[in-house]
Amino acid sequence: MKKARTNAVMDLNFALWRMGFEAQSVIAMRAMGAAGFWNHSERENQLMLREKQVALAKGTAGATRALMRGESPAAIMLEAVKPMQAKTGSNARRLSRKGPRIPGVLG
Q: Which domain holds residue 57?
């Protein structure tokens, strides 16, 4: 097994921190959308389910490749987290652009 590079550990920590922050934002915007206080598409529930399956498959494949290359545990975990963090980031950007909705006033 290769020795963990310092930047792999730092990258993993940053990716996990960012993913957690973005996931909470996405959860809040989706919950507000379900309550009618955030603009969102009708297919948001379908996206919510499908994206997790795709991100998990990509993360598993990336982690498996890193494991087969003999990468460090931090590098393997980073490969597993990257697709999930990328999806939380894109969701946060997409949903934040839609903005809040005041029922009966703006929509």
A: 6-97
Q: What ranges in 1-107 are assigned the alpha helix state H?
A: 6-34, 44-68, 73-98
- Counting every residue written for the chain, the total comes to 107
- In the chain, the number of structural domains is 1
CA 18 to CA 25: how far, in whole Å? 11
- Say if residues 101 and 39 touch (Cβ distance below 8 Å): yes
| Phi and psi angles of residue 38, each rounded to the nearest 5 degrees, phi first | -140, 135
Q: What percent of the chain has pLDDT over 90?
A: 72
Residue 106 pLDDT greater than 70, yes or no = no
Phi, psi of 66, deg, nearest 5: -65, -40
Model confidence pLDDT, tens digit, residues 70-87: 999 999 999 999 999 999
Give 74-104 as a DSSP string: HHHHHHHHHHHHHHHHHHHHHHHHH-B--TT
Neighbouring residues of 76: CB distance < 8 A, sequence distance ≥ 6: 63, 66, 67
